[in-house]
Amino acid sequence: MVDVSRDDGAAARANGEASFSSSSSSSSSEEEEEEEDMASIPDMLRGYADGGRLLRDACHDAARGLAAWTRRGGATRALLVASVGSVALAALTGLLVVVFVLVVAATSAAAVSVVVSLAALCALLAAAYVGALSVVVFVVSATTAATVVAITVATVLYM
């Protein structure tokens, strides 16, 4: 379906045809495509809502069909449906617990990784701090020693 409000180049692109345009119109066509992408977001959301409704309807139809099939059968069929349903519920619950444990483990691993990285960073910063303090101590000590020597020399020369 082609939107008649678009120019010929946009209509050709919508039909899958090649569009030959100048460089000045190519920037305007890019802007039009961006506007079309932005306009399609509500359509996409509407599609998700329609899909949800279709899924809900399909689930209700399947449940009604299963209930009708169970009623048409006897007690054995009802026992079969209850057994299979219970096993499926237990299996899905176990699967949900496993997924939950995996998510918790992954989150915990990420948190431990961050803490270890921060500890390594703290060790690096501590080493840098100790190194800076060592340089300061050396400079202060050398300056003090040089000052003591200079005062001693000056005192001996002027006596």
From TrEMBL:
Composition bias type Basic and acidic residues, residue spans: 1-10
Descriptive protein name: Uncharacterized protein
Keyword Transmembrane listed: yes
UniProt-annotated stretches for the region Disordered: 1-40
Keywords: Membrane, Transmembrane, Transmembrane helix
Biased composition (Acidic residues): 29-38
PANTHER family, alphabetized: OS09G0395000 PROTEIN, VOLTAGE-DEPENDENT L-TYPE CALCIUM CHANNEL SUBUNIT
Species this chain originates from: Oryza meyeriana var. granulata
This protein's record includes keyword Transmembrane helix: yes
Annotated TM spans: 78-103, 109-128, 135-158
